[in-house]
Amino acid sequence: MSDDRLTRLKTGAFERRFSIAKASLVAGSRMAASAAGSLFAAPEDRASTRRKALGEQAEYLVGELGKLKGSVVKIGQMMALYGEHFLPPEITTALHKLNDSTTALEWSSLEPLVRAQLGSRFNELDINPEPLGAASLAQVHRARRRSDGAEMVLKIQYPGVAEAIDSDLNLVTQMLRLTRAVPQTREFDEWLEEVRMMMHREVNYPLEAETTRLFREFLKDDPRFVVPKIFPEYCGDHLLVMSFEHGVPVNSDAVLSLPAARKNALAIAALEICCQEVFQWGQIQTDPNFGNYLVQISVDANAQPDRIVLLDFGAVRDFPADILDLARGMTRAAFHADRDAMKAAMKGYRFFDGMKLGTLEGFIDLAFLAFEPFAESSKVPRELLNAEGAYCWAKSKLHVRATSAAARSAATRHFTVPPKEFMFLSRKLMGAYTFMTVMDAEVKARDLLSKYVMSGS
User: For labelling alongside 192, which of 87, 198, 274, 421 has CA 20 to 30 A away?
Assistant: First the structure.
């Protein structure tokens, strides 16, 4: 987070439209000039020239978006995460550079909003005007309740960002279309609508408060997890107030230097919550980035395990029953390495029913690769198992191999864009695998998954 402070955000429709329109005009002019300049180039050079120009203009446009803060930045991040099947790699590469940790807004600009949200309760809290962190949609401040000293965190939504979502998405879409590199298809339009819905969920603080309470109830008896307590009497449409939970980042030296057994325990906990989300709760956190987790390192691991603090439930989705049935059926089939069961689980879903046989077989190969850590030890390359038969995640480079295989599959001419829910589940799986790799986990994951696969959920 920068030491500089903003006194206000550009949330007005006109000034945001002007800023994006100006950037789009400049980028469009540069693209046109590049296209004109390549007319006399050799045919084999035109494609690479166009990709180079597209990459340069994407970098320029993303730089301009980053200056606006608010929902524009979050929209760009979501497009980077979920747009690989729709957008050219030059654009997604540039969008991935949008930084969610941005310049903070002055407390004097936020205080009126907080006072309006809290009303007479404002004087019950001592709020630290120095932010803990600032992101694209909100910033976080610590507070202490005067009556009992309870430590709290105030997640304060920036003024005007919720109201600007629809216009911002339209502006970013228009900007991308000026590059002439985004498809004019029904699938793309449906995907844009999904981005719009995700954005509105992100700023729906009453929904996030309810989802946080729900996960706290789910995990109340599991000593491996901490979910913040919501203080509903202080919450509002643009203010979320919860307990302050101590912890260090997942990828901090303090965590990565823990003994292997303790890191393995954290890894198993993170993997198990994924199983619970799919097989038991039907509520899935679709944004598994490390910023949504902390680790509380135990002072006595024999008495109290290290704990994972779960933060930010704005991206939790309630998946429909048919998609959960599909995910469970495919998981069971992959667990048993049963190709016929996999095809049976896929049957009846338009995405799979429309696949050519060869493409379908390739997709099943990809699914089996993704479930390599859960396979019987006899079917796993021996060099990926330790002396006790546990799977070595970091050595396997599985998340890299699976991503490369998925990219090769997407490059075939028979590939069609998967349903958005499937992309969310894939992203969740890759997030979990990245966690396991960073932890350098060596665990028998098949033993964990078996109790869920065999449960008949």
Answer: 274
